[in-house]
Records
---
Amino acid sequence: LTVARKAGSETPENADNISGVGRLSNFLQNQLGMRSVTPRQGNDSDAVLSRAEAAIEAGQVAETLTILTALPSAVHTSMASWIERAELRRAAQSAVVSLSARLLKD
């Protein structure tokens, strides 16, 4: 998720609508590597990634993948290999649940 945070911080989605204070805040976040450490609402990359990080830390792979669909395409592209591995993990978890259910049934 760190790579995505960097990609997302380079081009804010609403750059034309940011006030002077907001621009200063974005500049400081980019220069100092600051980011949200708790899940927060919003559609900007930092907010989406804060929620995704909380979900993955809770072991909610499927929820994380759903959250990540809200990222801008540039950020989503930078996470392509991570997303692919997460999708494989989700499929494996689903297969384990299915196999366990089948074994318990028989």
---
Amino acid sequence: SLPSVVNIEMIEGCGDSTLLRYMSGQSPFEIVSVQPNPAQNEIAVTLSKSSAAVGIRYQIENQLGVTVQEDTFRDAPIGVGTLADGCYYLRMSCGGFVESRKIMIQK
């Protein structure tokens, strides 16, 4: 039979360290806020940890799941002025870890 408890040991340089950190409750970041929402020209994203250290990427997807904008997150406002009014999803990722928030564009 299988053991009921599995201990996860993190060893630097072995395996997917981002996944192991998340599984042990040490996510590389969390989205604290996205403001303003609804937005017109730009959004300010506040993360729980500095993005400079972890290389976070962002994608903005429309309601069909099509990526309409993507780049590396730089702790600076993200321009959304070229997006049409509507509902979008902001996906931020680092390795295998992903956080998403719904954003509205209203001009």
